[in-house]
Design brief:
The complex is a heterodimer. Chain A is of the alpha+beta class. Chain A is built from 13 helices and 10 strands. In chain B, about 45% of the residues are buried. Helix content of chain B is about 35%, strand content about 25%. Chain B is globular, with a radius of gyration of 18 Å. By secondary structure, chain B is of the alpha/beta class. Classes of the chains: A alpha+beta, B alpha/beta. Bound molecules: adenosine-5'-triphosphate (ATP) and magnesium ion (MG).
Chain lengths: ~400, ~240
């Protein structure tokens, strides 16, 4: 009986290709939307995770205040660090390097070209902790850091914008009031998971930064890298103990600084993108539901339109359940075809979108299977009501229908 | 189910059959007590003015409808006592229908239309194709198997409908004004075809018509008026 129903259903679908295509359109769009959203969302999550991992998984960030970066920022009441704090951290056992940093947005000028960029004052430890290599030139000399010499290392974007094809090494650029010689070029890192260009960046000795750009000695961020094979939890606890001591925080008071390791930062950020993915997926799922209602709608119309056909089948001797089965099979065949088309369309759109947004294209087989199963189920559920209506028609009335 | 192949009971026996549409003071008596016996191999024409109950009676004979009162025995089985599914099975195995409006599936080839009843019988594809082709041959449409109704003339469409009705080798063929939509020449061709099936295969036929020259092909003519049989006699004139 099922084979017969399948045969009859397929003939019926073939008989009216346009109607069939319209019936499935909603499902196609719904499935495509779900697949696109979830696939791009997965890609974005993976991108954020990979970006942060590229910072180095043994990286820790120490900031004044209790806030989380990007979640309200540091509390202004908390005093900033000093270079000595970073030196003390660097002396802890298990710490490979500690880089005190201060950053500001500054206009960089070379010849008649200029660009507003991020200037960070730090030491070579910055390059170590951030796992950042030089593409050309050299890093700071010991004396240059101590004396705060006017030298700088430029990121790939700054180099391209200010120098074009020209070799910047040995040239002088102005960073606000600081005129400095370019001694090194950083290898490009690309977009960060936060959407900022990490290569739009210039590194100068901290001393030079404090004197000529910031005008104060505040250190607002210390990057710390734990030594190989050292648990970041232990380093984190050591830093917290050390800083409480140095900042003279009484035993019952809360820290006025925070130490975050990459696990936490990864967790917070991927958590956000996951929630976004889920939300977009849910919106898309609603469109899938609407697609199902579309199937029911067109099937109901088609039952009316096909009344005479149903009458013929009943007169010829089709049983009620055979007509029911045929319509159900039609609905589920259509919706699963729609599901397949939607999957193809969705994967295509996701691949295009991923390229456009520069995130990896990561199709999830689970969601593909789920979307297919759901679309078939939608056909069965929403096809049932019209199918039952068709099956219960009175053959005489149906035959008389114009 | 009793097979209507037994020798004793007549193929069709109507006993005081009534059919009332509606109820109470809006009740409409379409049939007022029909007594009718039809034997195997008969070719019957049903005539009568419009609204006299011919189609109502055909629907009951075809097990598409059940009598309000009286009994209808088909091959000895009381149709009034059968369920909807049982009546569907009766139609599937023993009845063939030809309608005034052809009632073919549109955008479906002649062959697929003729195959349809065999699909519901669960016949294998090979046997089904062979039988459908033979039926198309029998109505003179061997070259038209892959044409859809829109590509066929009215006469050809009615032939396809006849092929669909006889492909199951039914015990009874019911035709409600089969020539009603055809010109006279085409009508006579259809009648030649039906007469042939009746004579050569012993197919029992009940046919409604308004035209006496069409009725003349039948062996027996029954007249309806106001839901009653007013005349039931062997045909005069002859084919
Ligand atoms: N479904 C129905 N509901 C109510 N009345 C009906 C219904 N079907 C038929 N009738 C009535 O029953 C009577 C008999 O109708 P029927 O269709 O049997 O006539 P007929 O002899 O076939 O007429 P015609 O030659 O015009 O086809 C008519 O008065 C008709 O109005
Ligand atoms: Mg009629």
């Amino acid at each position: 009986m099922f084979r017969n129903a399948l045969l009859l259903a397929l003939r019926e679908i073939r008989r009216n290709v346009l109607r069939s295509a319209l019936t499935t359109l909603g499902i196609v769009i719904g499935v495509a939307a779900v697949i696109t959203m979830v696939t791009i969302g997965n890609g974005a999550t993976a991108q954020v995770t990979a970006d942060i991992a590229s910072l180095g998984t043994n990286l820790l960030q120490v900031r004044p205040g209790q806030g989380f970066p990007g979640h309200g920022g540091s509390r202004s009441s908390a005093p900033p660090f000093e270079v000595k704090d970073a030196d003390a951290i660097a002396d802890l056992s298990g710490v490979a390097a500690a880089a005190p940093t201060a950053s500001q947005s500054v206009q960089a000028i070379y010849g008649n070209l200029n660009r507003t960029t991020t200037v960070t004052g730090s030491s070579n430890a910055f390059l170590v902790t951030r796992n950042w290599r030089l593409e050309a030139g050299r890093s700071f000399g010991e004396g240059e850091v101590r004396a705060g010499k006017s030298v700088c290392i430029v990121g790939a974007t700054v180099r391209k914008e200010l120098f074009g094809g020209q070799n910047p090494l040995g040239e002088n650029i102005r960073l606000g009031k600081l005129a400095c010689e370019v001694i090194g070029i950083l290898s490009p890192k690309g977009q960060s998971g936060f959407g900022t260009d990490q290569d739009d960046f210039v590194l100068v000795p901290l001393r030079a930064f404090q004197r000529r750009i910031a005008g104060n000695t505040a250190v607002r961020l210390i990057f710390v890298s734990a030594g190989d094979g050292v648990a970041t939890e232990k380093v984190k606890a050591d830093i917290e103990r050390l800083m409480r001591e140095r900042r003279r925080i009484a035993g019952n008071l809360e820290d006025d600084f925070n130490v975050r390791d990459m696990q936490e930062i990864v967790g917070a950020l991927t958590g956000t993108t996951r929630v976004l993915t889920a939300l977009l997926g849910a919106v898309a799922a609603v469109s899938l539901l609407v697609g199902g209602i579309g199937i029911m709608n067109i099937m109901l119309v088609s039952v009316t339109e096909r009344t005479r056909e149903i009458g013929i089948r009943l007169a010829i001797g089709a049983l009620e359940r055979e007509v029911l089965m045929q319509f159900l099979v039609e609905a589920s065949v259509l919706s699963s075809f729609g599901g397949l088309a939607g999957i193809a369309l969705g994967l295509g759109a996701a691949a295009g979108g991923a390229r456009l947004l520069e995130v990896p294209f990561l199709p999830d087989p689970g969601i593909v299977v789920l979307a297919f199963g759901f679309s078939t189920a939608v056909g069965l559920v929403f096809g049932f009501f019209p199918a039952r209506r068709a099956a219960r028609l009175d053959p005489i009335e149906a035959l008389r229908h114009e | 189910m009793t097979a209507p192949g037994g020798a004793h009971p007549p193929l069709v026996a109507l006993d005081g059959v009534t059919r009332v549409y509606g109820a109470g003071h809006v009740a409409m008596w379409a049939l007022h007590g029909i007594d009718l016996t039809i034997g195997r191999g008969e070719f019957i024409a049903v005539m009568g003015p419009s609204g006299s109950g011919k189609s109502t009676c055909m629907n009951i004979l075809g097990c598409l409808d059940t009598p309000t009162g009286g009994t209808y025995r088909f091959g000895g089985a009381d149709v009034g006592a059968l369920s909807r599914d049982q009546r569907a099975r009766l139609r599937r195995h023993y009845l063939g229908f030809v309608f005034q409006g052809f009632n073919l599936l549109s955008r479906t080839t002649a062959l697929e239309n003729v195959e349809l009843p065999l699909i519901y019988r669960g016949m294998s594809a090979n046997r089904r194709h062979a039988r459908a082709r033979r039926a198309l041959e029998a109505v003179g449409l061997e070259g038209w198997a892959h044409h859809t109704p829109a590509e066929l003339s009215g006469g050809q469409q009615q032939r396809v409908a006849i092929a669909r009705a006889i492909v199951t080798e039914p015990a009874l063929l019911l035709a409600d004004e089969p020539t009603g939509n055809l010109d006279s020449a085409r009508g006579h061709e259809i009648m030649e075809l039906l007469t042939g099936f009746n004579r050569e295969q012993g197919l029992t036929i009940v046919m409604v018509t308004h035209e006496s020259d069409i009725a003349a092909y039948a062996g027996r003519v029954i007249h309806f008026r106001d839901g009653r049989v007013t005349d039931d006699a062997p045909a005069h004139g002859g084919a």
